[in-house]
Each structure stands twice: as C-alpha cells, then as structure tokens.
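Batch manifest line 249
LIGAND: 2-acetamido-2-deoxy-beta-D-glucopyranose
JOB: complex structure
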Amino acid sequence: MKCKFLLVLLFAGIFCCAAQQYGGAPRHDIVKLSLLWPNSYCLTNDHNCRPNVPQYFTIDGLWAEMNNGDKLENCETRYYMTNSMIDSHKVELLKYWPDLSTYNYQDSKQLWKNKWETDGTCCSYLMRPEDYLVSAMNLRQSHNMYQILTNAGGILANGSSYPATKILDAIRKATRFMVDIVCETDRVGNVYLSEIHQCLDNHAGAFVDCDNKAVNCDQDPIFPDALFAAAAKTNRKASPTYVTRLAAY
Ligand SMILES: *[C@@H]1O[C@H](CO)[C@@H](O)[C@H](O)[C@H]1NC(C)=O
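JOB STATUS: finished
ARTIFACT:
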C-alpha cells in the first residue's frame, strides 16, 4: 500500500518535470546577465589572468534565477554546444566573452561549453546553445556600462573608490532599470567593483528591475584601471596607506 503510494508520487514527479522541461512555461522567474570588470576579476580570488585583459565590461554569464535568489544549474537538455556553433561567433566571443586566463581560442572553447551546460541549459526550454551565446552578447550590447559610469556618473576607472549607491544610481538613471553590483576583496583587504548584474524577464526578452543591491561592498569599492591593477598585483603587502599610495600612482 505504502509502496503504491510512493510509485504514484514518483510518476507524478516525472510527469511534472518533463512537462516543464519541454512544454510549459520556464521554471525560473528571471534571467540575469552578469558583466565583469576584468581588472577587478584578476586582482581577486586568485584568478590567473593573461597579461592584458580588456578595459571594458565583459560577459561573465547569463543564468536563470528564482525570485528568492536561487540560481538554477545543470538542467536537462537535448542540446550540446558544438565547436562549429562557437566558430561561427568566434570574433565576438573572443572580444565580449573572453576567457581571461588565456589568449588561446581552442582552450577558451571549454569556457563557453561549461557556461552552456551549467547556466544556459536552465535559461529557457526554448533556448538552444547558439541562441544562448547570441542572447548574452546582444544583451550586453544594449548598454555600454563603461560609458554610463564614466559619462553619466563621473565614475572613472582610475583606481579611486566610489560609494556603491552612486554606482547603482548612475546605472539606474541611464538604463531606467535597477541593477545589482557585486564587490570582491583582494588579499590585503581592498574592495573592488567586480560585477554588474542586469535582470531580465524569464524569456530574456526585456530588462526588468533587479534589487538595487550592492553585494559584499563593505567599503566603497575601487574601480581599478590597468595601471592600478598592475601596481596592486606587484605590491601585495598590507599597509594602511596602500590604497592612498596606489591612488596617487
Ligand atoms: C578619478 O576620477 C574622479 C572623478 O573624476 C576624481 O574625483 C578622482 O580624483 C580621480 N582619481 C585619481 C586617482 O585620479
């Protein structure tokens, strides 16, 4: 009797998920486009970066989330990202969605394949691997975050730090949508502006408001340029005047 009951539950579960996977509405509430500031990425979390990284915001990922902040990963799919799909977007991928650890195109392919498998497969039951790559790059083109911060906000990537609210406000005014930002801290305690997250509806068709959150920004984050990043990399010693000295660099 108990066994039968469990069987019914099991079948109900299979039916439910199969329907959601291939027929029904997407299971997630929103899609997030995450952009990263390469200088900050390379200074934090022991990321190994190639010598020169782009001085513009690059794509970190495009992923599906629930309204409570849970991220969906590794969803079932019938589709695999092939080399030829990647090849047909080689130039744009290398420019806007680079693997910051390498200049090698062949090695970089694993990054895009991983992003598809982890995040892309959950973005929508309609999205196929090539759409996923193109979507992320098109969405990134909607706003020039570097220019928004520089022009509208007076927030220059020059190694100075800026209040998180000032960064959030500048982007909200320019894009008309609230975003979230993420800060990362290096080994000596410097806090950097690391990521900007933009929110989209569950088909990644239109921008919507994020929460206007500044995550892990315990201090006003530094927005580092290449010069600052190079100096910070070679001078890891903690010192109270560290930031001031580098800012004067
Ligand atoms: C960076 O730019 C801001 C805004 O123009 C300015 O206030 C600040 O002094 C600059 N910092 C450096 C280190 O040049």
